[in-house]
């Protein structure tokens, strides 16, 4: 048995590999088999994280294990899907138990939290990278897509924005901060919580949804394009954490919220009549703008003036992180 | 729009991205959506190919496009699954149209041949590697697994063995050969044909199956272990191509067939009563041995003598290719 086969067995022995309902056959054969209840469809999303591009190398493998799965599962939340399973394609230059063990621990912890079972994958030798493919269930016709936003809808997000971008100088060791500031920001970066329950609550209510991974402005652009509408964002309505405001100040906090990315918070459009019942039920929904006829994304200041051009310049840095 | 987003659009525009029956939502949203007929399960397999490990770099991108999908789809054949869709996670150091265009052409050609539609994926910057995840449909309970082989079954393969391993010195430029020898060997290496139709024909007949990727001996070991049986392979019964025999001679051809890997031919066990009707129907089935009570894989010479130890030494090189 080769050492890479040992890795496969190691992951196969993890608790999350046991799977649950819907996993007819897990790790160890040519394919895994998933079963779906009648009337449901399978939602699928794939994300790759490359060392030195999407995370620093070296980094804490336990935290990477959590984060690598969370960012993939977040796409299931954005579709309103029930999480089911995932595969892991791990490429690593060496077989290092001191790295693999904490990575698998972090992965398993997030898998249990999200309710997904490891059903397969591949383990190969090469420069460190991770490709995770996640699977969820959604009743036919009820998935939340990007294409249903309508003029008159409210534009909403499911939580505070900009925390992960605010954490980046801490992650990269460029700045330090008191624990009261650093810990919530770093927790958001390393251990984002996919908004799976919110996604389910929005089924049949939100007209469009996605998760914010590339930054609010860029991701709202995807909804605007797919729905052929214009999205207006009110800069003063962005929900910001106390830690982010204390760390970088109001102006930079809003830049981070608009362009920073890695939030993994849901952005969605909602007919106004749907808002009050959802908020009354306790869902963390922040109205940040509205949908109008037209195209593209427009950022408005507190006076309703268009300040979009002033913020666009911050987006160029995205290119380096793809 | 970043250049990596352009790549995504490029693949999304490919004919194979249109998909067919069962693809409810393809590229462009947070998730793809697959629909399954009632009573069917989804078969899933993931394969990663790393530059410099699984293929030489540089290599012909058109041929790599074909091969990268074929090796993944072969796992669907091994399960007796109907091909449906796939995702591509492409990591590349630079955006080079002269590489991407022929790669996508080769990929699309194999996708059309196999009947799978591209439904999603990810495109990232980093050292060249490809992770393909393939999806197929199979009626619940009818998938061919590795675990059902029974004493008394015949051990069979679906075609000639060792051609891809025989091609390796040609691929690496270590040797040359006349076109009559080189072309069939290289075709097998670069453009393996997943035995999808054979997989379907074996449903309800074969007791176990897998595709030969790591070499006949190693892969038969997986069946023996999963089924808790002993597999006996008769060295003289291995089906070998004229090109391979002419290129490396009888002894080395049998070594390639036993240990070489990359054949992507099905290996399976079959109750003896099932053999004649399948062969009469024209399926290319070669009996190479039998199943007995016990464990492990035993290689027999023409006199029925156990020659397993003599061949095992050739397997060590596998480690370098994982």
UniProtKB/TrEMBL annotation, chains A, B:
Mg(2+) 2 binds at residues 47, 75. This is Thiamine-monophosphate kinase. Mg(2+) 3 binds at residues 30, 75, 211. Keywords: ATP-binding, Kinase, Magnesium, Metal-binding, Nucleotide-binding, Thiamine biosynthesis, Transferase. It comes from Pseudomonas tritici. It catalyses: thiamine phosphate + ATP = thiamine diphosphate + ADP. One of its GO terms (molecular function) is ATP binding. InterPro entries: PurM-like_C_dom (IPR010918), PurM-like_C_sf (IPR036676), PurM-like_N (IPR016188), PurM-like_N_sf (IPR036921), ThiL-like (IPR006283). Belongs to the thiamine-monophosphate kinase family. It holds the Pfam family AIRS_C. Residues 28-138 form the PurM-like N-terminal domain. Coiled coil: none annotated. The gene is thiL. Reaction mechanism of ThiL seems to utilize a direct, inline transfer of the gamma-phosphate of ATP to TMP rather than a phosphorylated enzyme intermediate. GO terms for biological process: thiamine biosynthetic process; thiamine diphosphate biosynthetic process. ATP binds at residues 121-122, 146, 213. Catalyzes the ATP-dependent phosphorylation of thiamine-monophosphate (TMP) to form thiamine-pyrophosphate (TPP), the active form of vitamin B1. PANTHER family: THIAMINE-MONOPHOSPHATE KINASE (PTHR30270:SF0). CDD domains: ThiL. The keyword Membrane does not apply. Substrate binds at residues 54, 262, 314. Mg(2+) 4 binds at residues 30, 45, 75. SUPFAM superfamilies: PurM C-terminal domain-like (SSF56042), PurM N-terminal domain-like (SSF55326). Residues 150-299 form the PurM-like C-terminal domain.
């Amino acid at each position: 048995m080769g050492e890479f086969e040992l890795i496969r067995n190691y992951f196969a022995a993890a608790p999350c590999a046991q799977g649950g309902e819907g996993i007819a056959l897990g790790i160890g054969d040519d394919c895994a088999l998933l079963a779906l209840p009648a009337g449901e469809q399978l939602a699928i999303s794939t994300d790759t994280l490359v060392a030195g591009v999407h995370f620093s190398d070296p980094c804490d493998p336990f935290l990477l294990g959590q984060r690598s799965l969370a960012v993939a599962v977040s796409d299931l939340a954005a579709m309103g899907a029930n999480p089911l399973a995932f595969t892991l394609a791990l490429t690593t230059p060496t077989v290092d138990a001191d790295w693999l063990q904490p990575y698998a621990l972090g992965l398993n912890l997030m898998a249990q939290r999200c309710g997904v079972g490891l059903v397969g994958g591949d383990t190969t030798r090469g420069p460190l990278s991770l490709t995770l493919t996640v699977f969820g269930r959604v009743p036919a016709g009820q998935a939340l897509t990007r294409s249903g936003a309508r003029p008159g809808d409210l534009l909403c997000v499911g939580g505070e924005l900009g925390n992960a971008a605010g954490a980046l100088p801490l992650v990269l060791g460029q700045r330090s901060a008191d624990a009261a500031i650093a810990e919530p920001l770093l927790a958001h970066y390393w251990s984002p919580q996919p908004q799976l329950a919110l996604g389910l609550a929005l089924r049949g209510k939100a007209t469009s949804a996605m998760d914010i991974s590339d930054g609010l402005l860029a991701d709202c652009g995807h909804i605007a394009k797919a729905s052929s509408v214009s999205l207006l964002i009110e800069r003063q309505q962005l929900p910001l954490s106390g830690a982010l405001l204390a760390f970088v100040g109001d102006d930079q906090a809003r830049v981070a919220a608009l362009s920073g990315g890695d939030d993994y918070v849901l952005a969605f459009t909602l007919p106004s009549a749907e808002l009050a019942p959802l908020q009354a039920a306790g869902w963390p929904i922040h109205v940040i703008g509205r949908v109008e006829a037209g195209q593209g994304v427009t950022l408005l200041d507190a006076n309703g003036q268009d300040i979009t051009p002033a913020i666009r310049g911050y987006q160029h840095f995205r290119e380096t992180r793809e």
